[in-house]
Predict the structure.
Amino acid sequence: MEARLRLPQTPWQKLRVVLEMIKIEHTLFALPFALMGALLAAGGLPTGAQIVWILVAMVGARSAAMAFNRLVDRDIDARNPRTANRALPAGLVSVPFVVGFTVVASALLVGAAYRLNPLAFALSPVALVIVFFYSFTKRFTAWSHAFLGLALAVAPVGAWIAVRGAFGVPALWLGAAVVCWLIGFDIIYALQDVGFDRTAGLRSLPASLGPRRALSVGRAAHAVMIGCLAGVGVTAGLGAWYYAGVALAAVLIAWEHAIIRPDDLRRLNVAFFNLNIAVSSGLLLFTALDIWLRKG
């Protein structure tokens, strides 16, 4: 209850509340895949301007999506003991502030897309619809994890379009890999709320199928992810270093599933956050290395 009474006073405290509200650290999930999409599209480093505007667009899209999610879920978050201390239900920020933040972040995406190319600009409202729609899905489908994956897949596909000004097959393979990756690890994250979701009438695969069966679905999704990453390599003409990165990702994902059990979530943060950051960062590193060595 103490956190509810401590309103942020200084600009630094207010910034910390906002960054916590949008889980800025989770940007590390999507950022490496966005940069992968840009590298693959350019066949090396994109221009400095492209990199800057891709980063601005991604930060805008993700910030808008997270703020909108907090708005839509504020009543649910208030009833869930795990999320009751989030900024909105705790009264640390107001609804008008979060609405304004969402509008500004959305404008940031659209403005950055405008600076990139006509197709990116034309598709920026579509991207916002996709990332906003996810927030409603847990109310009507247990496959909300897939919709969140689709929202995250906007990053690499959008980055490819930002560089090329057109769609490309490797980007679609990479987007499919991100969807499957997200399904797998979001199922693990959802294990925390199985009891609450069932009581509140919310849907997730762990709540609908039970934790064990849901984890089996997650493992299958991650297996498909590895196949999609192979599709990226084939269609983009990548080499041994890239596939070494894919192999490393497979090992890390296997480790992720090995340390999680339905009745033992003590290492959930390691499985959900640390290992998945290593997966996306490792894939980016090995992709960059493969491209650099082939160009050299």
The domain at 10-295 is CATH 1.10.357.140 (Tetracycline Repressor; domain 2). DSSP finds 14 helices and no strands in the chain. Confidence is low (pLDDT under 50) at residues 1-5.
